Amino acid sequence: MENYSYHVLQTLQKDQDRTLMIVDNDAITRGAFHSRVSQVAHLLREAGLRPGDRVLLAVSPSLDMFTVIVAIFALGGTIILIDPTMGLERFNYCVGKANPVMCVWMKGTKMKWLKYIFPSIKAIPKLLEIDYSSSLLTNYNDLIMPENVINTEHALITFTTGSTGMPKLLLRKHEFLLFQSKCISKMYDKYMKEIIKLDEEECGGLTNLAVFPLHFLKVGGTGGLFSRFTTCDPADVIQTLTKYKMNFLGGSLHFLHRVAKYASENGISHLPVQLALVGGSTIYRGPLRTISSVIKDSNVLIAYGSTEAEPISVISVKEKQLLEADGPDALCVGKPFVEDSVRVIPVQDDSKVFSDPVDIDSLRSDCGEIGELLISGWHVNTNEVEAKRLITDINGRVWLRIEDAGYVDKDGYIWLVGRAKWRVVDTKNGKTYWSAIVEQKILDRTSKITFVAYLNHKGRAYLFIEAPDGLPLKEKEALDSFIKLEGVPVDELVIKPHIAKDRRHASKPNTAVLFAEGNQKLKDALTLVKFVIISNPLVILLLLLIQLFMVFVAFYLFTA
């Protein structure tokens, strides 16, 4: 099976003085990146890394992260990426599921302390710290070349954010990463090249989503990444766009909206790019209008996808009345990216397993009828997917349940109404209320509300409202009136200055936090204390001495 790094190393041999990547204003050329990759690959090989080994990468999003990724790929290893901020219990759960044989981090970073915090890391057989200043590393001068790449099947193990429960393991083969890159190239040729007026390898894009820099490593072009996108200064983003003459800005709704809002408030009429690409969550009209207002000619694309398929569809904001305040309640995400790859069927039980082949066409919903969405095609990754999310039709074609609900109109456009399992059914009138529709209607009514999450949890309807400056009495009355007039079932209304969101996009509710049973932080702290006590001989000795001292004190008091 062809290795992703083969194509990366081919790119690195061309025009070696050209800027390859910028991460948080830290830039590197193709030639310098190639040297770093080769040095790290030699070091990993000396440390015992073998083809097929799984390596936990304890490296924050940075140039170092991409360097180590390419080096491990080239050696035939499988990379494991886990967000350490997801909490102690979840992190240990993910490490246990991925089962790494090596953990790698960079010298001088805080990541080295993870082995003292997470019991699962300390249990990994090999722990390796990479130090660029070490003479051992600088002695490796032989470049890793494309012909030396080791071909293995599996490339990458990641986990979902766990925003809907425990994180799910996602196993990506090199084949899928190559197909994903192919999808981005096709999307560029179909929707972006006409606007940017450059071939893909000549353009540059800045984003908060790592999939784009990884893609640019393969095809050329300049990839930019802002890792701490929730806290980065939008002025730095705009400065980077200008300095490196970036052609497009892409990422999650939260990231693009922050940059666009800053530009609008500071008299910047247009960002220095030809196009913006937004995705990763439900895209609401208000933030989308702000983004479109600072992009020349409103050249903004929405890419709709899932963890297993990117993209599913693409649409320009100029289509289907996406920006009108009185537009349709459902949210249009465009036509299927791959022809004949989407089906809509009646919403099925979330836990139902389709063990026998199904006649999908006999289940197919009518045009305009809301149901759950299924996708199928070469761009869909079904590896390590739960059985309940897969349906095989009578022709042997495998369909993935992406857990979203919506419909397809007469023109072939997909319209989203929300997550299928978050729907709220009013038992009195039998009417179904969908999250995206309710949320959009509330957001359209006031600017005081910046985020809404409406969902069903264990049979109860929850409405979470984010109002950073509080919700004035008039606005609260208007919200109550909307709920009453629309008949929206609400068992619990929560209004807070901040609603927990997923860390990857900061644009979706983190239900694992919103509905955490008990105090998860306290549980994590107690687990950590227990681990430190058990794993540290000095602490054990100190506790024994304290216990011995207390025995002597008790004996003295008893015999006095």
TrEMBL record:
<keyword id="KW-0812">Transmembrane</keyword>
<keyword id="KW-1133">Transmembrane helix</keyword>
<feature type="domain" description="AMP-dependent synthetase/ligase">
    <location>
        <begin position="12"/>
        <end position="379"/>
    </location>
</feature>
<feature type="transmembrane region" description="Helical">
    <location>
        <begin position="538"/>
        <end position="558"/>
    </location>
</feature>
<keyword id="KW-0472">Membrane</keyword>
<dbReference type="InterPro" id="IPR020845">
    <property type="entry name" value="AMP-binding_CS"/>
</dbReference>
<dbReference type="InterPro" id="IPR000873">
    <property type="entry name" value="AMP-dep_synth/lig_dom"/>
</dbReference>
<feature type="transmembrane region" description="Helical">
    <location>
        <begin position="65"/>
        <end position="82"/>
    </location>
</feature>
<dbReference type="InterPro" id="IPR050237">
    <property type="entry name" value="ATP-dep_AMP-bd_enzyme"/>
</dbReference>
<dbReference type="Pfam" id="PF00501">
    <property type="entry name" value="AMP-binding"/>
</dbReference>
<dbReference type="InterPro" id="IPR042099">
    <property type="entry name" value="ANL_N_sf"/>
</dbReference>
<protein>
    <recommendedName>
        <fullName>AMP-dependent synthetase/ligase domain-containing protein</fullName>
    </recommendedName>
</protein>
